[in-house]
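Async update (no meeting this week)

Hi team, since we skipped the sync, here's where things stand on the single-chain job. The sequence we agreed to prioritize is pasted below, unchanged from the tracker. I ran it this morning and attached the output directly underneath so nobody has to dig for it. Comments welcome in thread, and please keep replies under the output.
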Amino acid sequence: MRVPKRSEQTVATVLERTAARDPDKTFLIEAGHAHGYGALNALATQLSRGLTGLGLGFGDTCLLMLPNGLPFVALWLGLAKAGVIEVPINTAYRGAILRHVIEDSRATNLITAPEFLDRLLEFNPLPARLERLVICGEGAVPEALSRRLRVIPYEDLLVGGRDPARVPGYTDLAAVMYTSGTTGASKGVMITHAQAYEYANCVVEVLDLEPADVYYAPLPLFYIGGQWAVVYATMIGGGTAVLKDRFSVTDFWDDVAGFQANTSLLLGAMCNFLHRQPERTDDASNPLDKVLVVPLIPQIREFCRRFGLRATTNYASTEVCVPIRAGFDLPKPRLFDLVDERSCGRIVSDRFEVRIVDDQDNEVPHGTVGELVVRPREPWIVMAGYWGNPAKTLEAWRNLWLHSGDAMMRDAAGNFYFVDRLKDAIRRRGENISSVEVEAEVNAHPAVLECAVIPVASEHTEDEVKAVVVLKAGASLTAPDLHAFLSSRTAAFMVPRYIEFVAALPKTPTGKIQKFPLRERPLTPATWDRLTKP
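Output:
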């Protein structure tokens, strides 16, 4: 079989090629059902016809707000075949942020499930451009919505319709994915089929994905990691992907064993949760072999030994794709080329240029922290811009480099180290502090489950440091004792002045800690202050 050129790779062509090669091979396992490549390809083709029959045309946007499951995957693939731009919505969104995404996307169609319709009922009035709801699942549609919007059952897409007028190509838009919006309104990142393939294929390369692999990674499909780094990467590698609704510490190892999964992707928070569970004598008795951990936790080598697996990492984002990863400079990318527990790898140098720059965009010396900026060596493999927002696109691309918003450092050997999101960096008494580094020290205490470190405006200008801490079940720890623990382990200027214990931290549906709610109310009656409560 002829090896396709890179410029021929789209979501549709990858699916069709894999399905033609082995139509009976299981592609997807979800809700106790197995779905083969051939069957999913046929379903996606029918959905592309059904969607076209609704009037969706090439280059139109379509909102997708669904839980993990077969309909989400099939509709994503059907939209891709029809040349319709997918706009996945975080299922936790409601209120102003949901309205913003719906209105900013300019979509007239929303494909959703009955459990999310209450979000629309909160709107008065409904977003003006919204015309049609496609409902996946059983449940009544409130009359207040059916009067205003045309309602179509998902099943209607499975009959009739017409063939799309145009087949999408490598440079056409596949999706608009909205950022978290922690520093302002969410921005829609325009993603070409080229970028989607590059992102997913980098995961294929770093994990050596192949048809024998069973890939279990409980990430939501509206998230770039769930959709591309798991499902699309599986499709490129020809393996099997297992879908679950959400990550669960208690279910994870049982699921790995039950599905005989040998491959996974863990966000750093997930890895930390698993590592901090009580040890068992059979921890290493599991089929998991290779895991992509992003970012690495400081105890990654101990984690690998304990659970009998191998790990690798990379640096990626919706905007800049995957310019840095472990193992690239070897003859063949492989697992475990980890320089240390903090590096996120080296430049994927045949596809990207990378610099670390100061606030004037001048390149800084090795060993100096600055902002990571990226430029592709191949066209179309980073974001095409922000949807409907040329000003923000120009700002991100100033001086002809795509600015990541991440503070990083590069050593003389070419290893890159993630320091912090620029907006999370803390400056105290002339010293720059990485919240990530302070969090690692707090998490090292045996009583701590997880934490978030944030800046608090100081009466002396600049910032003070606050740690918001969740303890392990049944553990006890006082703020003075934690302060003493940290004072013995790190520089004095990094030790938090403020400490607060909470039952849980705010999270995104992907398990990432949300710091902006903590920053909005940094000091509470429960906050311990070293200066006033010794």
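Quick observations from my side:
Confidence is low (pLDDT under 50) at residues 328-334.
The chain is about 30% helix and 25% strand.
Reply here if anything looks off.
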